[in-house]
Amino acid sequence: MDVSNGSLDLMPSAGVSHVSSRDIPALERDRMNSELDELRKNIDSIDDEILRLLERRANKALEVARVKQSSGWTSYYDPERERRILERLTAAHDGSLSPSAISSVFQEIISACRSIQQSRWPAALGLDEAASGLPPCGLPLAAFDPAQFRTAAEIVVTRMERHLSDRSIRGLRIVDPSALQRAAQALMATGHEGIADCDSRRLAAIIDLYIETGIHVHSPGYMGRQFSGAVPLAAVIDFAGAVLNQPSSFYEAAQLPSVAEQIMAGELNRFIGWDPDRFTMVTTSGGSLANLTALLAARNDKFPRYWSEGGGSVASHPRPAIAVGDDVHYSVSRAAGIMGIGEAQIVRLPLNRHRQICLEQVGPALATAQRRGLRVFCLVASAGTTSVGAFDPIDELADIAREHDAWLHVDGAHGGSLLVSDKLRHKLRGIAKADSLAWDAHKMMFVPPACTLLFYKDKVKSYGAFRQQASYVFDTEPDIYTELDSAAKTFECTKRPLIMSLWVLWAMYGRTLFADKIEYLCELTEQAYQVLRGESDFEPLHRPQANILCFRYSGAPRAAGRVPDLQVAIRNRIKQQGHFFISKIDIDGASALRVVMMNHQITIEHFRMLLDDIRLAARALLGESTTRDRPDHEHRSEP
Ligand SMILES: Cc1ncc(COP(=O)(O)O)c(C=O)c1O
Q1: I need a surface site. Which of 121, 283, 392, 572 has the fewest CB within 10 A?
Q2: Residue 98: its pLDDT value, please?
Q3: Which candidate, 316, 318, 361, places its Cα nearest to that of 341?
Q4: Residue 298's domain is classified under what CATH number?
Q5: 516 and 453 share a domain?
Q6: How many A from CA of 512 to the centre of ligand 1?
C-alpha cells in the first residue's frame, strides 16, 4: 500500500500564491511558459541526480552497518557521528540555504538511512544485550528501541518545524468524517501476524493528516476560539513529560513537577497578593474541573456535614444555592448539577451594558433567593467571560459575598492571565479578597492543554473539596514529602505533570514573554473594534475588555431577511472558504460573529482581510455578484 496517499486528496491547500494566466498577454505568456519549462527540466534532472546520490548514500550506510556488525557493535545508531555530520554540513553552506533548512533536509536523509540500517540489523528486535554485557532482557520489543524513538521523533519534529514555519492564512477545512475515516484507516498496518515494523512513511503520512485536518492555531487566519498555539518550547517539554511519565499527584512520583508547582504558585501569587504562608495552588486538568473543585470546597466549607451525610444534612435548612453572572461559563452550572444543585438553585445575576454582573441588581437578586428558601453559599465572578471577555467587578462582589457569608470564586479560566501584565492587572481589581481563583494556563499563558491553576486563599480549605481516606495513597502523618502531594486536593488520581511546560517557559523566558503577548492581543482587539466602528456595514456589539470581540455584519439590511440566521450562515461560509476560522455566539437572543485573538502573528491588516471575506460571504449568500469586486488578497499567503 502506498501510505503516502493516505491524506492527500482531502483538501486543496489554501493561501497559495497564484497568478491568473488571464492577466498576462499571450506572447508574454508563451515566453514565460517556455522559460518555466526549461527551468523545470533543469530541476527534474537535478532531482534525478540527487536521487541517485541518495541511493548511493543509503548503500554506504548499509555497508557501515555491515562493518559495525562484523566488528561487534551493539547498535548501528551513532548519535555523535550524526551530530558531527550535521555540524560539518551546516558550517559548509554557501548561503543559498539556511543552516536550519540544511539541517532539516539532512536529518530526514540520515533518518531514512538509519531506517534501512535498522531493517537489516540482525538483532532488529533491540540491542544485542549479550554483546553489551547487560543481562538479556525479557521481551525485546523494537517499539521500545531508543533508535526507533529517535527516528520517529525526527520525522515528527521535522514536520512540526515546517508546520510552525507556515505563515499562510489558513482557517479550518472541514472534511467529510467518512472520507477522513477512510484516509485514516488506509494508514493502518494490516495483514501482520506479529508486530508490524514501524514504517517511517506511514508515520509521516499520519502526522501530515493530523496537521491538515486541524485548526491551524499558529496561522493568522485562526481567530476563532480560546485554544492557543503553544509556545514551541512548552510543546517540547510536554513531549518530554510523556516520555518521562511522572504523574504529578504525588511527590514521590513527580519530584520536580511537585516542586515546580510550589515555585509557580509563589511566582503567580505575587500578582494575586494572598498571604504567602496561607495560600495554596493545585493544578487540575482543565478549568471545568477547577470550577467543580472550588465549588465543592465552598459547599463543604459552608455546609460541613454535606460530604459525610449528603443532601439529607441540609433537608430542614434553606437549600444550598450559587449565584452567577448570566454569562457564566457552562462548566459552572454543570458543576452545580454534578453536586446535586438543581437549575432552580442557581441564581442568575443580571448583567450591565458591558455584560458584567450588574452590581445594583445583586442585592435584590440575593434577597429574592433568600425569600425562595435558598442559601447562596458561593458567588461566582468571571474574569473574562467566554462570550465577550467581560470582567465582573471582583472588588465589590467580594464585599457583597462577605456580607452574605458566601465564598467568592473567580472563574479566571480565560482572563486570569491578565494578572501577569502591569498594564492589565487592574481588570481583576480586588482579586486578593476572593476565596479561590481558577486560571487556565492553556489559554492565555500559551502552553498545551490542559494546564489549569486553582488557587485558594486558605490552604486548609483546599483540603475541604474531597475528604477521603485511602491508605494506599494518603498518609495520615504527613512528612516533608507528602506535604507536596496534591492528590488529596484534586479530583484526578493520575495526572500529567501539568505545570512543567509553564514552569519551564517561566524559567527560560520570564514573565515578560506572557505580558507582552497578552498586551499585544488585547491592543489588537481594541484596534479591531475601532476598525469596525469605522465601517458602515458592521456593528460591534461591545467594546473589548480583553481579546474577544463580537460583532455583526449589518450591510444590506433589507436583503438580510432572505437568509435565515445570516450571521451563522456567514460564519459557516467563512469556514468553507478556508482562509479564516472564526466562531459565532448568541448575544441577547440573536446570533453574532466572534473573534478571539490568541495569535501574536495576527495584524490589523489580517482583520481587515477577514472583513472583506465576510462581505464576500454575505454577498454570495444574499445572491449578489461576488466576481466584480473580489478582494485581491484572496489567493495571497501573506498580507
Ligand atoms: C470562562 C471560562 N471558564 C471555564 C472554561 C472551561 O475551561 P476548560 O476548557 O479548561 O475546561 C472556559 C473555557 O472556555 C472559560 O472560557
Answers
A1: 572
A2: 83
A3: 318
A4: 3.40.640.10
A5: no
A6: 24
Tell me if 192 is assigned to some domain: yes
- The CATH number assigned to the domain holding 187 equals 3.90.1150.170
**Ligand 1 atom closest to residue 226's alpha carbon, by position in its atom list:** 14
Nearest ligand 1 atom to alpha carbon 328: 1
CATH code of the domain in which 99 resides: 1.20.59.10
| Residue 357 forms part of a structural domain | yes
The model's pTM is 0.82
Record the cell numbers describing residue 214, joined without a space: 486541524
pLDDT score, position 474? 65
* 50 and 136 share one domain: yes
Among 386, 427, 498, 545, name the best residue to mutate to test ligand 1's pocket (greatest count of ligand atoms within 8 A of Cβ). Answer: 386
Angle 262-268-271 (CA atoms, 0-180°, nearest 5)?
A: 145
Judge whether 557 lies within some domain.
yes
What is the predicted pLDDT for the residue at 179? 97
Measured distance CA(120)–CA(128) in Å, rounded: 14
Q: Whose CA is nearest to atom 7 of ligand 1?
A: 287
Pick the residue whose CA is nearest to atom 5 on ligand 1.
287
Contacts 24+ apart (CB under 8 A), 616-621: 616/577, 617/570, 617/573, 617/574, 617/577, 618/553, 618/555, 618/556, 618/566, 618/570, 619/556, 620/573, 621/563, 621/566, 621/569, 621/570, 621/573
For the Cβ of 414 lying below 6 angstroms from any atom of ligand 1, the answer is yes
Residue 99 resides in a domain: yes
CB of 331 closer than 6 A to ligand 1? yes
Task: State the CB neighbour count (10 A cutoff) for residue 395.
Answer: 15
Structure confidence by residue, pLDDT tens digits, 455-473: 999 999 998 899 766 666 6
Ligand 1: does its nearest atom lie under 6 Å from the Cβ of 440?
yes
Q: What is the pLDDT of residue 313?
A: 87
Q: Which residues contact 325 (CB under 8 A, 6 or more apart)?
A: 348, 349, 351, 356, 357, 380, 381, 382, 385, 392
Tell whether 447 and 581 lie within a shared domain.
Answer: no
My answer on whether 111 and 224 are in the same domain is no
Distance 500 CA to ligand 1 centre (A): 20
Q: Which atom of ligand 1 is nearest to the CA of 386?
A: 16
**pLDDT under 70: residue ranges of the chain:** 1-24, 74, 122-134, 192, 468-475, 624-639
403 membership: H or E segment, kind and range: helix 394-403
Could you report the per-residue pLDDT of 242-276, keeping only the tens digit for each?
999 999 899 999 999 999 999 999 999 999 999 99
Distance from residue 413's CA to the centre of ligand 1 (Å): 5
597, three cell numbers: 485573538
* Tally of structural domains, the chain: 3
Same domain, 329 and 181: no
Q: Evaluate whether 438 touches 412 at the Cβ level (below 8 Å).
A: yes
Last residue within a domain, chosen from 165, 186, 205: 165
Are the C-beta atoms of 501 and 230 separated by less than 8 Å?
yes
CB of 288 shorter than 6 A to ligand 1: yes
Q: What pLDDT sits at residue 192?
A: 66
**Last residue of one domain, picked from the residues 165, 184, 214:** 165
- pLDDT value at residue 23: 56
Residues 439 and 300 in one domain: yes
304 and 338 assigned to the same domain: yes
Domain with 56, as residue range(s), is: 39-165
Give the list of residues 6+ apart from residue 410 with CB closer than 8 angstroms, or none. 380, 381, 382, 383, 394, 416, 428, 431, 434, 436, 437, 438
519 plus 396 within the same structural domain: no
387 lines ligand 1 (CB under 6 A): no
Tell me if residue 291 falls in helix, strand or coil.
helix
Crossing angle of helices 359-371 and 394-403, rounded to 10°:
30
